[in-house]
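# nightly structure sweep
# worker-07 picked up a monomer target from the shared queue
# config: single-sequence mode, recycle default, output format = structure tokens
# input follows
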Amino acid sequence: MFIAEVLAPVVATEKLAFFAGRKLLLVREVLEDGTAGDRTMVALDGVQAGAGDRVLVARNGGAVDDVVGLKDCPANVVIIGHVDRVERQ
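# output follows
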């Protein structure tokens, strides 16, 4: 898992039937110091996130399967939570 910032929605008029009615978002990783990282990817939205939100992202098929309730889901990146803050001790 990693923390990311939602950059924008992804609109695709031609896509697999599985993705019909599901929101896809462009996310960019956030580094440990809070700055933007280099890694950008498209994630399936599991928490109604929007542009500017800091989110928790999982990158494995099992997490996506659990969020959408299907086995062998064709996506492998999913937003699983909103990040309110990171507390360091």
